[in-house]
From TrEMBL, chains A, B, C, D:
Gene3D superfamilies, per the entry: Aldolase class I (3.20.20.70)
Originating species: Streptacidiphilus monticola
PANTHER family named among the record's database cross-references: THIAZOLE SYNTHASE (PTHR34266)
Name the record gives this protein: Thiazole synthase
Species lineage: Bacteria, Bacillati, Actinomycetota, Actinomycetes, Kitasatosporales
Subunit structure: Homotetramer. Forms heterodimers with either ThiH or ThiS.
Amino acid sequence: MADDRLVIAGREFGSRLIMGTGGAPSLEVLEQALRISGTELTTVAMRRVNPAARGSVLEVLQRNGIDVLPNTAGCFTAGEAVLTARLAREALGTDWVKLEVVADERTLLPDPVELLDAAETLVDDGFTVLPYTNDDPVLARKLEDVGCAAVMPLGSPIGSGLGIRNPHNFQLIVEQAGVPVILDAGAGTASDAALAMELGCAAVMLATAVTRAQEPALMAEAMRKAVEAGRLAHRAGRIPRRFHAEASSPMSGRAQFDPEAPAF
Amino acid sequence: MADDRLVIAGREFGSRLIMGTGGAPSLEVLEQALRISGTELTTVAMRRVNPAARGSVLEVLQRNGIDVLPNTAGCFTAGEAVLTARLAREALGTDWVKLEVVADERTLLPDPVELLDAAETLVDDGFTVLPYTNDDPVLARKLEDVGCAAVMPLGSPIGSGLGIRNPHNFQLIVEQAGVPVILDAGAGTASDAALAMELGCAAVMLATAVTRAQEPALMAEAMRKAVEAGRLAHRAGRIPRRFHAEASSPMSGRAQFDPEAPAF
Amino acid sequence: MADDRLVIAGREFGSRLIMGTGGAPSLEVLEQALRISGTELTTVAMRRVNPAARGSVLEVLQRNGIDVLPNTAGCFTAGEAVLTARLAREALGTDWVKLEVVADERTLLPDPVELLDAAETLVDDGFTVLPYTNDDPVLARKLEDVGCAAVMPLGSPIGSGLGIRNPHNFQLIVEQAGVPVILDAGAGTASDAALAMELGCAAVMLATAVTRAQEPALMAEAMRKAVEAGRLAHRAGRIPRRFHAEASSPMSGRAQFDPEAPAF
Amino acid sequence: MADDRLVIAGREFGSRLIMGTGGAPSLEVLEQALRISGTELTTVAMRRVNPAARGSVLEVLQRNGIDVLPNTAGCFTAGEAVLTARLAREALGTDWVKLEVVADERTLLPDPVELLDAAETLVDDGFTVLPYTNDDPVLARKLEDVGCAAVMPLGSPIGSGLGIRNPHNFQLIVEQAGVPVILDAGAGTASDAALAMELGCAAVMLATAVTRAQEPALMAEAMRKAVEAGRLAHRAGRIPRRFHAEASSPMSGRAQFDPEAPAF
């Protein structure tokens, strides 16, 4: 597996699980979950963080060697998102940004127009932009066309745990994409993460599925293994689906069983 | 995880993946896949095996420390299955049997009447019986009632790769079962195996999903991790499914981002 | 459509919707729903009916020209069901019986062993037997083999409203059946009924989906039309499913639009 | 049903099935299908029509009293679509337009940015705009906000026959919409149309599901009934989905069956 690394904008990662930090009951629980998950890249909501605060999530990431990926959660317009990204760059010294521009607080769904506008501006401004988008193949292509380094379609609404509602759209997005496709939002359990990888996603992003599980540490391990399992299955080339059964060996010409033979 | 072992009829297993041996292109490929899968229990079709033959699948299992679980594949009546089980016990020195009594060669679906009849006979005869059954909760309970050590419902027809067609029936079977429920037949890829475990299965049995994948070794590793992931997720207690989005942190009362703060 | 009649055991019906009578809030509501549904055959639970009672459901059926199909609801053994069928024949003067032998009160799922036993006995006794069965293709074939006039697989548990949980099994049952396949149990709304017919069912049986809907009369009409729609769609031969889009007309060679042309 | 009419922009329709004209093997077949479908509103691709031509689809609509709804199929930019709509208005004397702005010929998916731009322009220009959109609830709301008279989300790509890939999104769109939501694209068979209506759609738009069925006349009738059935079911208020079975009558306290009673 050493040669199967995730590459985004030329940067390599050994783990294909990107974690978020929201929803954890405590910093201790969060730290344990992050460690177990094996993640190497974790989002932090800039609008909820004071980089100077002691005992902050940033310290947790730093001491565990996890790269921080600032996001623009809580932004409703391109302008807000661009401003937030710039503040994050200044404060955190990274020009990577997970771009979120949501339409409203109730659905937390991306605003396609504002998102595309912000993405274009930030790319022009030298950012490495990873946009949280809906599962529309056309918008995914537009985001790639303006220079985004990945596209991060939602499987279902943030925090819903409904998994990938429309696998068909994920297949359409993956087959046309020239950048990594990363499931963002919707994964509720391990099989959701595995399915995303089998559909051709390059990575999975999730937060509350782990942080709000009854046992976050167990779910962090589950998600790590599920992402690896799904990636391996994708590479392995699965058997075709068949309408009818197929015996694993021909039923005719069965060798005779010899009851006289000694047991091995 | 050391304390989360699979227990069937008082016997413990560290792996929850039970492999079959059918469908492999060669013994070498099979051996590699079995090793990588981590399986500790593997079925062998008695009607296709000569225990005395050198270079046989039995030798492969023996030198890898994998227990053999003889099955009665190819039997269409209770009588045939009982006879085959007895011959296997004599030849292989085990009273465990994976009981298969199929209705016809085309569907390879279990014959519920013959299956129940054979199960009862074999239990009375001192066997530890693991029956391959359909996904009918009533038949599963009857099999448990006559003394089977586990029930092994199919997700979909053998070799179809269609996954678990009726998760609802699996939930009904699991909630009433006092013995381990093991997915048998239908798994095509990693997410199928993970889902089975999330639904409460104690283990997953599969063969062609691995042996006939384009890269059996990769799929063996995928399945090992998927089973582990699904088990962990089941134990972790997943987040509930919600119709609407839910932010990982309250959107109101967001802390102010301070651009003057030094980067950590 | 005059030539597309449902035929069971040589008897013809213009409607492919078979109704049950359970669950209605009143006889008046039931009568209205039955009329609107257009049903020509309706089940009555013999264990809940006194054929001599005035104002009974039997009177409702009689005055609306609907044939009565006694069922053996509430029977848990073959013996009970056979006795109930014989009493029904004597009381109602019909040798048709909808055979139900359930395993327990909680799941109301059919007991496959008792069901098959009862079916064989009743066929030998001259009954026209329509058995309520699970969705196992093997049991469906066995029921046909012992002489049942139709097979009535469940889509999901009685009263659950979960629709057809396993369409694949219905396809397997239909492709092998020489008698009518009738969806029994599980339909919750119109699209469930339409889907059953599209899968090749000859008819749909339901009760509570109508009698316990908020507006039984509206749902009765919905179900009548849904069954007709599904049957027509099945006969019409649907378009194939395609992974990609397909324009309804070639995109190239589009005729020029002439803005000078007069409006028609 | 007389009081359950479809209302779009103040105009009433007795039928909730909107037909397209593409894909028919001949004008004769199309005319028969349109008649049987009961449609009162039918789209015509302006770029494929010469309104002055004799024997045209426009004549078919005219002599059957079906209103024409020009569409902008084949347009890839807002500018093209606006121009086409204006030409249609001039030629056909209607300011209604089904607005289509697709991103490319391969997917035929809507371009969200160009679509919104064109919608705004046309509304400002006095058109009654019915936009073909993806199933994104945010874009649906934006289209309503700029003044569209309805929103027409796709169930799946045009001509794919894959039905409604993401019912959850349809529920989200319907619950927030103040204008009629009309399924556009993806319906392949009757149950797809019924499901759309059950999810709360006000109407269903389709073309090739009928025109390219093996028997277009039968499928036209199927779709007419399916739309009516789904609408009735939506109004009727379906039974809730239950995980477990529920008997249609209490199993306890069953009335005794009296074999002495005379048959009715």
